[in-house]
Design goal:
This protein is mainly alpha-helical and 106 residues long. Helices cover 75% and strands 0% of the residues.
Amino acid sequence: MIPALAVLRLRHRDVPRPYQVPFGTKGFMICATLVYAWILTGSWTALFPGTLEALLGITYDFHGTWGVSRTAFEAFTLGTVVALLLIGTIGHAVAGAVNDRARVRR
């Protein structure tokens, strides 16, 4: 959503907005960048917990926190992400085929 909002704001500057951000487009881009950075940080720590702590020199007991090894955790987490991406890709392909058939019938 955040990148889409930024692109729309940049490509369609003349469209009236129902909300205002201080300092106009520059202010919005700063806010969008901060929010997106926060989203990326949260996503990274959800997929790879303990890695940022290691970078910052903070101790992190992975097995004590999660009750499994890092390998088992990563396999399950990344496996889930891959499964969701596959389901999304299949859904996108099926929807495209349905739309193509609907266009042909018109």
